[in-house]
Amino acid sequence: MIDNLAQGVQAFTSNAYLVTGERTVLIDAGANFDIAAAIRDRVDGLDAVVLTHTHRDHVGNLEAVTDAFGVDVWGYDTSIDGVDRAIEDEETVQLGDHEYVALHTPGHKDDHLCFYSPDAGVLFAGDLVFQNGSFGRTDLEEGDRQTLIESIDRVLERIDEDLEEMHTGHGPSVSRNPYDHVELSSQMARRA
């Protein structure tokens, strides 16, 4: 089960997905709301926090989560404060009941990862792409439009048209033709 703990929060935050099952994981911690309470309302504990990237709106609540649940934080770059364990490009990571491949997808931020499970039909896209052809900002430090386009294209090559769900770093998840939204993001990033 995938539950966006930031849904309905009226503060500047990313989405924060609680993925329950055999391995209960929080994908991104969000910011500016009591995420520990939201987690406790749903589960007794966490096995890990997995980060799509380390922009403040995705990690602002990280210390509160690690203090409350005593878990390791997994991300691409362990030289960044708060990241305990590195996830390598193409490494397989268990989220809930499914195996996901981690794809290093810089362009929005150098340490950006997407997670894709062909078996589950799910993509965690972070801030790489969003619904309706939107895509991650490239005007922030470490942002680069050409690199972002290459990362979007890399994800497009990996996912298939039967993708069932795309969970993004901001805004609503996409469960209706999510592949088409990724494809449109690739086109729109080239035009901008």
Automatic annotation (TrEMBL):
Domain of life per record: Archaea
Residue intervals of the Metallo-beta-lactamase domain: 13-170
Region (Disordered): 166-192
Essential cofactor(s): Zn(2+)
GO MF annotations in UniProt: hydrolase activity; metal ion binding
Family matches, as InterPro entries: MBL_Glyoxalase_II, Metallo-B-lactamas, RibonucZ/Hydroxyglut_hydro
Keyword check for Zinc: yes
Alphabetical UniProt keywords: Hydrolase, Metal-binding, Zinc
Pfam families (UniProt xref): Lactamase_B
PANTHER family: HYDROXYACYLGLUTATHIONE HYDROLASE GLOC
UniProt name for this protein: Beta-lactamase
Taxonomic source organism: Natronolimnohabitans innermongolicus JCM 12255
